Amino acid sequence: MTHALPKIAWIGLGIMGSPMSENLLKAGYDVTGHTLEQDKLDRLTAAGGTAAASVAEAVADADVIITMVPASPQVEAVAYGPGGILENARAGALLIDMSSITPQTSVDLAAAARDKGIRVLDAPVSGGEAGAIEAVLSIMVGGDQADFDEARPLFETLGRTVVRCGPHGSGQTVKAANQLIVAVNIQACAEAVVFLEKSGVDLAAALDVLAGGLAGSTVLTRKKDNFLRRDFRPGFRIDLHHKDMGIVTDAARTVGAALPVGAVVAQLVASLRAQGDGGLDHSALLRTVERLSGTRV
User: Fold this and answer.
1) pLDDT at 120
2) Three-state DSSP class for 29?
3) Which residue in 59, 170, 56 sits closest to 110, CA to CA?
4) DSSP percent split of the chain into helix, strand, coil, nearest 5
5) pLDDT below 50 — which residues of the chain?
6) Pick from 112, 169, 172, 222: most CB atoms within 10 A?
7) What are phi and psi of 99, to 5 degrees?
8) So what's the pLDDT on residue 235?
9) pLDDT tens digits for 25-79?
10) Nearest-angstrom CA–CA distance, 278 and 272
11) pLDDT score at 1
12) Is 275 helix (H, G, I), strand (E, B) or coil?
């Protein structure tokens, strides 16, 4: 009555990839994974998956290949070349790249894959580590409608909001806009936190009431405890947000869109990274505001 679930190859088992692949395993999918760290492979096998020693080995039998790696160079490294996905996946396979990369990289990948008979969707996500663990990610997809329809059950196992945004690269464009909004929002919250603290207000009480009004946002709700506790363990690293601000500012220049506030926040993210805080969570934008305000860091 029901079709067998597609066999999944998962490339990249980091902060996002590990919990996402585990959600597929819980839903009954067969997942074979490859990543660079042995402990992440051990975690996959402990969750019921199969570890592969290489990209080529992981993708050989897969119906669907999912990549979740840091940036465009890593996507290109796992996709192209003799050991890569395009040379080793079978014709007819569906490659879903869930990394956040430049829209152009996604367009180029789809074109290269077409020559091999491999279909591609760009499907970056928003929601961070918590969203990945809870399977409530927002997934923005670029590619053909038929391929999107085929992948939808899989997306709905990983996220709550699943939307096809247009042709190849569209998912990445929407993700870039997402990262612009998130960075500006975190910066605004960070400035408010320093202002409130310097004014001697009860910060926890203030953030509670702000979260309930028009100033409330998912960013404030998710990052409130990070601000209160100065807990900057990475859910989403500044290094990655720096990469994403580069993507959005570059793509905006290409299409002729002005991002005046986004450009300023991109520089604040860059400065935080230059201060050695690139490995911290993006809520650590608070540290830049504190430095500028002569407060504790």
Assistant:
1) 98
2) coil
3) 170
4) 55, 15, 30
5) 1
6) 172
7) -70, 165
8) 87
9) 999 999 999 999 999 999 999 999 999 999 999 999 999 999 999 999 999 999 9
10) 7
11) 42
12) helix
> Within 13 A of 248's CA, how many CA atoms are on the CB side?
29
Is residue 159 within 8 A of residue 138, CB to CB? The reply is yes
175 tagged catalytic: yes
The answer to whether the beta carbons of residues 151 and 94 sit under 8 Å apart is: yes
How distant is the alpha carbon of residue 83 from its chain centre?
Answer: 25
Selecting among 7, 40, 116, 175, the annotated active-site residue is: 175
By C-alpha distance, which of 173, 165, 219 is closest to 192? Answer: 219
Under a CB-based contact definition with an 8 Å cutoff, are residues 252 and 258 in contact?
yes
Type of residue numbered 51: A
At position 268, the amino acid (one-letter code) is L
pTM of the model: 0.93
Structure token digits, residue 256: 């002729």
Instruction: For tokens 């050695």, name the residue.
Output: 276
| Per-residue tokens: 13 | 């088992």
